[in-house]
């Protein structure tokens, strides 16, 4: 008997591969969740007070790390100002909250990864606020003793760019702009989920950065500066183009600031090390690994990026032009894939940004000079800001108001 070779076209092969990877990931996390549950059950039987949090707390914030301090700081300050007790759980030993001298806000380091999830999964609270997605999907589970789980967006771009089902099981999602509501409602209907509260509160971390950038000193005599600030991963600017983009930029003689995505140091250190070594003798190329991005943004005359959310930080805070290199972002692992439409952030970038093609890299200095700002681009930037960053300066107050009203039934 002769067997004919089976041909699978590249598109189908890619889809099957993605399905297999997704199934493997699901089995992996289900197994880990089962192990955690067994550990918690056994710890509870032993009377381990750390495993079962029997002390009810009306208001809890959980921070995955110190990088989210700017998101929570305005909320924390509201609770402190109103003299209302707030438990602040963090997975960073050096979280900035510990350097504050709060009276009513009680910070506590609860460990990282599974150690933190054990604590959170057995929590007793009225309202839990977090930036962590994937509630009830992976290790982080809903505690039966928590009345309300709320996710606050830490970006002004699309709320559907989380991994699949990232926001499905929260009781509320706190938005930066009204435009984010439509897609979340669509996903709820498609998946047969009950409607959650979608509350437009503003963008707390942008409120913080807006105040910080005002205090940044102006450079008296500064060279023309280009900020390269990409996303991470194989489709990000640095990983995809690397020296093909940076070489011609360095040759312009301008000051070039390269600010890799924070995740790059963890996920693609070899790529970064290779580039750092390549340009170690170039005085006009500077690497920025600082936690806050405002120092580099303040110095830059223009930004080059891809689909990174920092484009909106720079646009909204500095009102300067951005150039973007097309990146083929694979949406299949994200909620946005189920919507079958272009993301808002991509459509608005085409209007307010300047596209940079790879065949223009060799003459990038000339291209940048020609791509000067215009009233049309500025108008589109203004429109995007009004759409995605509402209630400017009021996010902390609005979030605190919602938390208190949800728990007590009345506004403070």
Explain this structure to me?
The protein is globular and about 60 Å long. It is α/β, with parallel strands linked by helices. The longest helix is centred in the first third of the chain and has 36 residues, at 10-45. Strand 1 (57-63), helix 2 and strand 2 form a beta-alpha-beta unit. It has a 7-stranded parallel sheet with strand order 3-2-1-4-5-6-7, covered by helices on one side. A 6-stranded parallel sheet has the order 10-9-8-11-12-13. The chain has 15 helices and 13 strands. Residues 1-15 and 43-53 have low confidence and may be disordered. Helix 2 crosses helix 5 and helix 2 packs across helix 15 (395-408). Helix content is 41%, strand content 14%.
Descriptive tags:
alpha/beta; seven-stranded parallel beta sheet; globular; 412 residues; disordered N terminus
């Amino acid at each position: 008997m002769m067997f004919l070779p089976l041909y699978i076209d590249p598109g189908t092969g890619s889809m099957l591969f993605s399905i297999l990877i997704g199934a493997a990931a699901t089995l992996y996390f289900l197994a880990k969740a089962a192990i955690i549950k067994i550990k918690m059950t056994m710890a509870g039987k032993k009377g381990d007070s750390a495993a079962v949090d029997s002390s009810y707390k009306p208001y809890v914030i959980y921070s995955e790390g110190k990088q989210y301090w700017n998101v929570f700081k305005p909320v924390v300050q509201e609770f402190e100002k109103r003299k209302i007790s707030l438990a602040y759980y963090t997975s960073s030993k050096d979280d900035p909250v510990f350097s504050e001298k709060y009276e009513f806000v009680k910070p506590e380091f609860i460990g990282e990864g599974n150690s933190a999830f054990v604590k959170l999964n057995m929590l007793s609270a009225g309202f839990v606020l977090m930036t962590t997605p994937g509630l009830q999907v992976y290790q982080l589970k809903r505690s039966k003793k928590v009345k309300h789980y709320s996710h606050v967006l830490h970006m002004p771009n699309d709320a559907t760019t989380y991994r699949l089902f990232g926001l499905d099981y929260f009781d509320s999602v706190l938005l930066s702009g009204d435009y984010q509501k439509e897609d979340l409602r669509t996903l709820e209907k498609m998946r047969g989920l009950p409607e959650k509260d979608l509350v437009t509160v503003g963008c707390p971390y942008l409120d913080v950065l807006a105040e910080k950038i005002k205090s940044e000193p102006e450079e008296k005599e500064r060279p023309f500066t280009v900020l390269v600030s990409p996303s991470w991963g194989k489709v990000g600017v640095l990983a995809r183009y690397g020296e093909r983009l940076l070489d011609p930029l360095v040759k312009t003689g301008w000051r070039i600031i390269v600010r890799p995505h924070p995740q790059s140091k963890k996920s693609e250190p070899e790529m970064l090390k290779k580039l750092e070594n390549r340009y170690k003798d170039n005085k006009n190329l500077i690497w920025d690994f600082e936690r806050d991005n405002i120092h580099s943004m303040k110095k830059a005359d223009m930004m080059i990026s891809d689909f990174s959310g920092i484009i909106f930080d720079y646009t909204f805070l500095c009102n300067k032009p951005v150039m973007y290199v097309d990146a083929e972002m694979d949406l299949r692992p994200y909620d946005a894939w189920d919507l079958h439409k272009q993301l808002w952030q991509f459509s608005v970038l085409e209007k307010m940004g300047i596209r940079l093609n790879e065949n223009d890299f060799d003459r990038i200095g000339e291209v940048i000079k020609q791509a000067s700002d215009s009233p049309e681009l500025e108008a589109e930037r203004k429109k995007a800001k009004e759409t995605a960053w509402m209630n400017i300066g009021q996010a902390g107050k609005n979030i605190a108001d919602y938390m208190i009203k949800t728990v007590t039934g009345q506004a403070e």
